[in-house]
């Protein structure tokens, strides 16, 4: 069994409870805006016992569960945890298909030991993220996803290779991919309630209701699913940018931002198992003129010191002529896998001499600058 489906338990709510110990053991509902409108994005297991579930209006959740703590959604924070979650998975296999921030399929490849990997992954997630995941192990995606859902939270369900069909026979037909409320009603009208019932049906009989999908639906009910785990397209570039609340002509401030971004980019490259050849700096001026400067290194680079070194040189090349800057961006591209050869042919600003991990210690002066610069908007992207 080489296919795994991992699903973090009550992800957003669990992160909130992890970071606010006084909320542990209490019902926590994440969602809505600060005014308390909107819908539930996630509910802790304590809140679910009151009948609260995601996509429910917040107002209804308040009526169902008066003692709950209601927390607004903090996607950047959840995204950060998600990146670390995916980085843990990547240690086992590069064949990972994320479905959302907290869910992914893994293909361990021929001979992969699913149960062993699942146990190790669960342990790593607890020890490194202080969160739990439920894992399904099976011979295909459909079965693995069903399995991960069977013993939530903190579940581990292994479906042996030859027992898929019997394992899922008693589950409701609604659990089959592609069967929504209308499909379910259609099947119920024909006396088909369980996956096991559906598995015995001639697909042609379902054609009026499901059209060309009828064969696939019956195949899934029989535990057959040939879809491969499709890894997300590798990023072609990673970038960070910031728009200042007030335009600045302070060059040291720009250098400080570049240094900060270089650290973040190193971390993101490491997590993705990549190095970069090209560093690009983007400066948008107060009048919205945008200047970009790039430099490509002969060998792929990874460390924040190298990225910052190039980026800061590039900033130095731009003649601002007293004009103010409203946005700074730093991008790395020409990404290659970390297995590619590397040799250090750069000389660095000695002031950026690194700590023991080779990451530059930030100038105290830069740090002060960073803290004194309020930003309007900060973003990142990987394309
Ligand atoms: Mg989840």
- Helicity, in percent? 25-40%
Q: Which regions are unreliable across 5 or more consecutive residues at pLDDT < 50? A: 341-364
Number of strands: 14
Q: Largest sheet at a glance?
A: 6 strands, antiparallel
Whole-Å distance between the termini?
A: 32 Å
Q: State which percent range the strand residues make up.
A: 15-25%
What oligomeric state is this? single chain
Overview of this protein structure:
The chain has helices at 11-19, 45-48, 58-64, 75-90, 114-129, 141-150, 164-168, 181-189, 195-199, 203-210, 214-221, 251-272, 304-317, 364-372; strands spanning 3-8, 28-31, 40-43, 69-71, 96-100, 103-107, 133-138, 156-158, 237-248, 274-285, 290-301, 325-333, 336-337, 375-382. It has 383 residues and is an alpha+beta fold. Among the domains are: 11-73, MutS, DNA mismatch repair protein, domain I (3-Layer(aba) Sandwich); 165-221, 5' to 3' exonuclease, C-terminal subdomain (DNA polymerase, domain 1, Orthogonal Bundle); 237-382, DNA polymerase, Y-family, little finger domain (Dna Ligase, domain 1, 2-Layer Sandwich). Strands 9, 10, 11, 12, 13 and 14 form a 6-stranded antiparallel β-sheet that branches. Bound molecules: magnesium ion (MG).
Index terms:
383 residues; MutS, DNA mismatch repair protein, domain I; DNA polymerase, domain 1; Dna Ligase, domain 1; 6-stranded antiparallel β-sheet; 14 helices; 14 strands; globular; binds magnesium ion
């Amino acid at each position: 069994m080489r296919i795994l489906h991992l699903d973090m338990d009550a992800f957003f709510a669990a992160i909130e409870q992890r970071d606010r110990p006084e909320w542990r053991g209490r019902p926590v509902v994440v969602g809505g805006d600060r005014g308390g409108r909107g819908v539930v994005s996630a509910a802790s297991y304590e809140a679910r016992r009151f009948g609260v579930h995601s996509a429910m209006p917040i107002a209804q959740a308040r009526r169902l569960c008066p003692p709950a703590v209601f927390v607004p959604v903090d996607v950047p924070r959840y995204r950060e945890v998600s990146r670390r979650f995916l980085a843990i998975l990547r240690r086992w296999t590069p064949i990972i298909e994320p479905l959302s921030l907290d869910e992914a399929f893994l293909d361990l490849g021929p001979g992969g030991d699913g149960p062993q990997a699942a146990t190790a992954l669960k342990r790593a997630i607890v020890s490194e993220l202080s969160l739990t995941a439920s894992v399904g192990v099976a011979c295909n995606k459909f079965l693995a996803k069903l399995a991960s859902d069977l013993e939530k939270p903190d579940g581990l369900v292994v479906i042996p290779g030859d027992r898929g069909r019997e394992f899922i026979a008693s589950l409701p037909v609604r659990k089959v991919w592609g069967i929504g409320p209308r499909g379910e009603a259609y099947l119920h009208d024909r006396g088909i309630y369980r996956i096991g019932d559906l598995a015995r049906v001639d697909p042609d009989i379902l054609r009026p209701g499901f059209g060309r999908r009828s064969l696939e639906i019956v195949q899934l009910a029989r535990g057959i699913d040939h879809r491969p785990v499709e890894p997300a397209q590798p990023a072609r570039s990673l970038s960070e940018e910031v728009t200042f609340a007030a335009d600045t002509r302070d060059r040291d401030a720009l250098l400080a931002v570049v240094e900060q971004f270089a650290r973040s980019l190193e971390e993101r490259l490491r997590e993705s198992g990549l190095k970069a050849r090209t560093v690009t700096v983007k400066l948008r001026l107060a009048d919205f003129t945008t200047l970009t400067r790039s430099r490509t290194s002969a060998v792929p680079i990874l460390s924040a010191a190298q990225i910052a070194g190039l980026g800061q040189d590039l900033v130095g090349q731009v003649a601002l002529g007293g004009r103010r800057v409203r946005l700074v961006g730093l991008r790395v591209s020409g990404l290659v896998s970390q297995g590619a050869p590397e040799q250090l042919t750069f000389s660095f600003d000695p002031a950026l001499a690194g700590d023991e991990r080779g990451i530059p210690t930030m100038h105290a002066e830069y740090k002060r600058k960073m803290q004194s610069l309020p930003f309007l908007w900060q973003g990142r992207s990987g394309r």
